[in-house]
Each structure stands twice: as C-alpha cells, then as structure tokens.
Amino acid sequence: MFDNLEDIVVHYDEIMAELASGDVANDQNRFRKLMKEQSDLAPLVETYGEYKKAKQLQVDALEMLEEEHKEDGAADAEAQVENSDEAEEETEVSESAKAETEPEPEPSENASDNGEKKQITTEEELDEEIYRRIALKHVERQRKKHRKKHYFLRFVVLLCIGTGVFLFLKSNYFNIKSFSVEGNSYYTDAEVISMAKAKKGVNIIFDAGLSDIKKNLKGNPYFEDIYVKRSLPDKLIISVKERRQTAAIVYGESFVVIDEDGTVLRKATVDPQVTLLTGLTISKMNIGEKIEVEESDALKMTLRMLSAMNKGDLFFKKIDVSKVLIRAYIYDTLSVKGTPKELMQTIQRGELQKVVNNLFNDKINRGTIKVGGSDYMSFTPEIDA
Predict the structure, then answer these.
(1) pTM value?
(2) Which of 5, 235, 238, 239 could form a disulfide with 227 if both were Cys (CB 3.0 to 4.6 A apart)?
C-alpha cells in the first residue's frame, strides 16, 4: 500500500512540475485535466506527508532514547565503581579501628607456629554486607532518576506514532467508494443497500456504522443472518442469508407467505407462485414471527414434507390439509393422496418422483396417486374425491 502511495506522490510532483512550466497553458484540455487530477490527489498527498513527518519524529525519538540508554549505562557503571571504592575504603578504616581498639589475643596452644592471627569472620562479613547494601541503594536511586526520563521519551514516541496513524486513517483514502452485496436472491443489490441505509463518502473505519446497517436489515423478515465487513481501503461488503419462500396460506382475499419454519415473510394480494396450503385456520399472524394455526400438527408435518419435496426435485402447486389424508396437487388434474408422513417418506426414497416421471413420459396428466404404508402405491386415472 505504501509503495502505491509513493508512486502517487511522484506522479503528483510530475503534475505540479508540468503545471509550473507554463507550456501546458497553450493546451486548455490538457490544462483542465491536470488541474482536476491535481485537485483529486492533493488531499491524499497532504495526509501522506503528515504521516511521513510523524514517522520521522518517531525515528528521531527512538535515536534520542538509544543515546539516553548509553549515557545511563555509563553513569550506572561509574556509580558502581565509586560506591565500590567508597565501600572498600570504609571497610579498611573500620578494620584499622578495630585493630587499634581490640586487645591482642593470648597465644594458645593451638596457635600455628608461623604466628598467623585467627580471623574474626562473622564481624567482617557483617560489615561487608552493610557496605554492599549502601552501594546498591545508591545505584538504584540513580537508575530511578534516569528511568523517569525514559518514560517521558517513550510517551513522546507513542504519541507521535499514534497521531500519525490516526491522521492517515482519517484521510479521504479510507472513505467508502463502493458496496458489494452477497447471498441475496429475492432482493436486488440496490434494494439491499437502500434498506441498509449505507452511505458512500464516509470513513470506512470510524464512520461506517456497521451495527446500524445490521440493525436496519434485521427489520426485514426475509433476512435470517446478516454480516457486514470492511474491505480496505474503501469497500463495504454486505452478506445476507435469506429465508426462502416455501408456502402460502390462504387468508381471506390475500395470501400469507411463510418459510420452511413457518415464519411469516409477507402478506400478498396476488399469487406468490409458491405451494398453496388450504384447509388451515390462522389464529395469529405477525410478520417476522411464526404463524399460529388451529391445525398446528398438520402444518408442522406439511412443512417437513415440503422440505423433502424441495430436496427431492418435486413441486406441488397446492396441498389441501383439511382432512386426515391430505391431497397434494402436482397439476390441477393430477394429485397425490396420503398422510403427510407417508408422502414425506415416499419422496425421501425417490419413489414418488419415479411414478410422476413415468406418468409424464406416458403423457398422463390426470388421475390420483395413492400412497399407503409398507411402500404401497397405486394409480387410478380418475380424480378421487
């Protein structure tokens, strides 16, 4: 991405040089084209220049921080040497004082022949430990002083980096210029974008409003799941999973369109060209919610049968569920009769499709296919009542 920006800066400089030459004024078309291109590129080049300045500040701050580290290391080493020398001098003075004040020990029988004195190790170790701790505390105080300077420099570096990145991300380079819609079939791309209330020209990182887009689309019952994501630097992708129209229930002079779970998608005044369900009495109907009917068990089994129908490459124009044995119409004059469970099992095994294909090949489009238990199927050319 930064390589592309560098190329844009070089191209911008070439445009400015050509405009400054004066020769281009003789060609008005060329002059207008260069002025428009310069106007379009100027905000991006200016923002990128600010980013490079912030980046340089970061480099300078890091160099200052490295020099401070070197100076602090030298100061710590010098302090340790000075404190070590002081500790040794204090130890020598203390031992000398002890030698002058303490009486000489009486020679004992166990004393060695070469006249060496017996060392008092306990007091010497105690004195050395005291002086060592004093030196360490002094060194630690020096380190704390320099550490405060380091914290300030780190803060400056982070501030420079953060400011540069923020200004770059807020530039026009990251404004939304296009949309992409995926997974839609019932609604067009333009309709989805309109319902989402997605806007061009706003910053894709800070002002895209992804949650608002999802909320706007969630109000439509056709959308089961919605995903919105950024495609940097300037594209927004809206991915939807639509509920599929499975059936319609007659409701007075209109039709209530539902999906395979019984969720109400819409209310239509014209035939929605899906399987029509008759013989059901609607007790409650709200768009976006599951429909409630008095014949709830019959509806549930019929929807399961329709799901098997869609998977089995079969289509019923109408299904009458008013009786125990339902009647599913393939054509207006060709129907299948049986319980929802028996019809579903026959479809899942592919047996009903074979019978329908044989009748179609024989150019028979009138009659009744009866489905019973134990894989029983029969056909009569008459329309059974």
Answers:
(1) 0.56
(2) 239
